[in-house]
Every structure is written in structure tokens, then in C-alpha cells.
Amino acid sequence: MKISNNKMMNKPEKGNKNYLKDNSISVSLDNVSIKYDNSVAVKNVFCDIKKNQVTSFIGPSGCGKSTVLRAINRMNDLIEGCKLSGSVIFEGIDIYAEDIDPVEVRRRIGMVFQQPNPFPKTIYENIAFGARVNGYKGNMDELVEESLKKAAVWEECKDKLNESGYSLSGGQQQRLCIARTISIEPDVILMDEPCSALDPLSTLKIEETIHELKKNYTIIIVTHNMQQANRVSDHTAFFNTEKKGKDVSGKVGFLVEFGKTKNMFNSPKQKSTQDYISGKFG
Amino acid sequence: MKINSFSAKNLKYDPSLSRNIGNKSLTVIASLFAAISVLPLVLVISYVLIKGGSYINWETLILEPEPPGDDLLSAGGIGPAITGTLIMTLIASIISIPVGIGGGIYLAEYSTSGRFANFIRFGSNVLAGVPSIIAGVFIYAIIVSTKILFGSMFSGIAGGISLSILMLPTIIKTTDEALKLVPNDMRNAAFGVGASKFTMISKITLPAAFRSISTGILLALARAAGETAPLIFTALFSRYYITSFNDLFYEMGSLSVLIYNFALEPYEAQNQLAWAASFILVVVLLSLNILSRWIAKLGSFSKSNL
Lengths: 282, 306
What we know:
The structure holds two protein chains of two kinds. By secondary structure, chain A is α/β, with parallel strands linked by helices. Chain A has one domain: Rossmann fold (3-Layer(aba) Sandwich). Chain A is built from ten helices and ten strands. Chain B has one domain (77-297): MetI-like (MetI-like fold), CATH 1.10.3720.10. In chain B, α6 crosses α7 and α9 runs antiparallel to α12. Chain B is flat. Chain B starts with a helix and ends in a 9-residue tail after the last helix.
């Protein structure tokens, strides 16, 4: 659980590279490669993620889409031996620069995890915790209500705000987690397969929630479900794996194609994208 | 019909089969040994409770003990020993609980799989196995004989310190394991909403592990309260109540040392005091153990509990 200091291998020299601040772009991955210990998990990812739109990462297991997602708010720092090269630019700032505080990054870029993971506290406290951590001074009751409403779980929760977060069903728990993330008012919400542990009805509700949230937040979602990517996202990034080399065992993930979801699903440029989307592999 | 009767016969339980005889006899033998193994526990506790309980009365609980041989009919009471045991376990807790929990937090939350952490884990396991008399001799050597505590020699504080050495490994270990039982999801969730590591530990993982940790502390307390050997070397014994803070720096009585001293006296009155002290000690230890079991039953990390 140690927060390792991620030293970048090819760190851009300070002041040397001025990242143009493009107002329509929220997060930009610039030649990102990620290593676990000494094995490369993902290599050379370039990707510009548009503001206030939903971007989905799809691809077969082990292609590194979750790894890339976790790199965007420095959750990978928590994994020992995980190293990143290249740069992740958030609103014109390289979040892997030495003077960046990962805690601050995570306040701006919130995350929803694969398994619903409410805190073992009341529903109210689940929301209030994040807000308090971030020094929220306003009316907490209002914030709790507003966050739960935005995450479309207010109706189910309003009568039992003082019950445990675990008294909710799985889908409601996941929306509670989304509400918790919203309560800290991030700019970007990362979702790591948020529906994989849920039934189709809960999934549908989460997707509706995502549609609503898009107005105010930039959303990046990792999903195994291609219909879901098609339904919720504006842009899609397809990741795939390839053999590391003739003599090296293991696979490495890379970004195959990135573009508008519509174009991607109707007329993919790459054959492997076509094959994956039509279910020929993966 | 033939088939029917044949199969019916074979499905019936036949007690003369060697398999069934073996089964039965092993069950009997195992239950016999189980009964024998709990026999000492039942006998010791009931003997102490019955014999000691008969000497318990209000005066025994609050009076100071008389010097052996002064009065053949009454030996006073065990009041100072009860407060002495309380004070010394309190001193031991004040030292060992923060240190132990802090150490456990380091092991579970901060240390990587490094050598230092493994060394601490190994060290606290070894410390848990060190005979209590060694802890006493150690404190005797570094505190009592050097008069390092403002010139005092045998003292309640030295006694408390030696008990804290015995409590430390249990607390470190239970904290470490209780924190490790808290799912990593909780840590991710806390980091995901922008909590710092300190907030994550103090607001999320420690509260979640609170019950297991308090169980460990209670068990450690129960062990410390009953120790005799370390106190003989450090706190010695006193027949008087403490009346001021300064008295902490002088000899202090305790239940266990009172039992040790008085049980061997030739006078009946002193022996009865020793029984009374045993009764109190057993009741305290039993209730600490029962309390810790009760807390543990509530669950170490339970999602439905708040």
C-alpha cells in the first residue's frame, strides 16, 4: 500500500514542452507506456479525451484498458512496481510532474470501481465523507441530496439515509458510489467496469445516470460490454494485445483505434477492431 | 421379491461391522480426551471460585493486608493489591496500546513487503514467546538497578513497563491482522474520493478494524493482569494503598504477587487472603476473556455494522 514515487523514464524536461491548452480537451495521454516491475503492460498510448463527453475504453482482457484508466488519476501509484512513462496531461498540467500531489489529482479526477465499494458507514456519511475530506464547508444535507439525485438514487435512499450503505442492492450501491464521487465535484469521473457486477436493470439505470452526468462531467468508462460502449459513449478507444516479440513471452497492450463511437462501430478502420466488435475474438 | 429382501437387508445398519465398531469407538475415545482436556480448566476455576469466594467480603476487598503473624485471626484485606494491579495494567496499557497500534498500522498500511517489516513481524512473534520472567529481569536491569526513574528502585511504574513488554506483541499482531482483513476496496474507495493516506487510515480502515483490535487489547490486558514473575523483579510488593502520585515511584502491591507471597505463609489468615485474591483475579481474567469474545462475535469487519 505504499505510495511509490513514480519516476518517469522519459520525463519531458520542465519548461521544455509547453502543452497547448485546448479547452475542448480534458485529459490527454501523450505516449503513455506503463510497466509493472519490468514487464510492459501497455505501450505508446496517444489519446485526447474530450470534455463533457463520454469516452469508453474497450478491448479484450489484459489489454491494459483498466491500467490506462487508473493511470489517469494516479491510482497506479498504489501498486508497487508500477511505472509510467510519457505524460498524462490534465487541463494543460502534466499530472506526473514531480511537484504534483496525487491526492489533489484524485480530487479533480474521481473514480468509480468495478465492485460497488461503499464505506461501512451510513448512506449519508458515505457522501459526506468525500466532501468533508475535500474541505466542503456548505450545507451538507443539500449536498447529499443533490449528489444522490444526480446519481439517480435519491428516490431509493431518501428514507434511509441513516442506514448502512450496504443495506442497498448492488445496483443502488454502485449509484451510491457514483454519488459519492460526484459529491467531491470532480472534473472527470473514471469508471472501471462499473456494471460488470450488476444485473441488466441496474446496468440500464447506471447508463441513464451516465447520460445525465455527461452534461457536467467528463466521463471515461472501461467496459467489456460492446453494446454498452455503443449506447453510452461518444468516443471509443479500442485496445488490443500483441506478442512482445519473438523471444519474449507475454503480451503487451496498445491502443489500436480511437475515434467517434458511431464511426468506430459502423466503419472501423482497423481489421482487428472490426473483428472484436463483431465478436470474432475477445 | 428376492431382490427386494436382499437389498433391504444390506441397507440396514449393522453394528457388528468392523467399520461401525471402529467409528463408534473412535468417537468415544475422542470425546473422552476432549472431556479430560477441559477438566483442568473446569476444576481449577471452580475450585478457586468456590474456595476463594467463601473468603470474599467487603472488608477483604478494601482493607490493607496485615503483616503475617501479627494477628492470627484476621489478615486484613487485599484492597491495595487490587488497586495496584489496576494501576500497573493501566500504565502498561498507556505505553503498549499507542505503540502497539502504531506498529500494527505501520506493518499493515505503510510497510511494503520489505525486510524491515518482516523483521518487526518476526521480532514481535519472538517477543510474544519470551517468558515473562525475562521481561521482569530486563526491566530490573535497565530501570530498577540503575535507579533511572528519579532514583527510585522498585516501583509501580517499572512494574507497568515490564507488563507493557508482554502486552506489546499481542497488540501489534492483532492490529496488523485486523487491518489486513479490511478489504482493499475500502482503501481504493477512500483514495478515489481524494482522501490522503492519513484520512484513509484514521477514518476508514481503523474504524473498520476497531473491534478486532479491541479484542486483542483485552486479551493482552488479561495476560498482563495475571503475570507474577515480572512484577517480583520490578514492583515488588507493598501493603499500603497509594496516596499520592509520588507513590507510583515506590513498591506497589498486586494481586498476583500477593498470592505468591501469602499462599506460602504458615498462617491460615494469610492463606485465606491469597484465596480471596485468586478469586478476584480469576473473575477479572474470565470477564476480560468473555468480553473479548463477545466483541469478537460482533464481527471484525462487518459490512452491515456501522
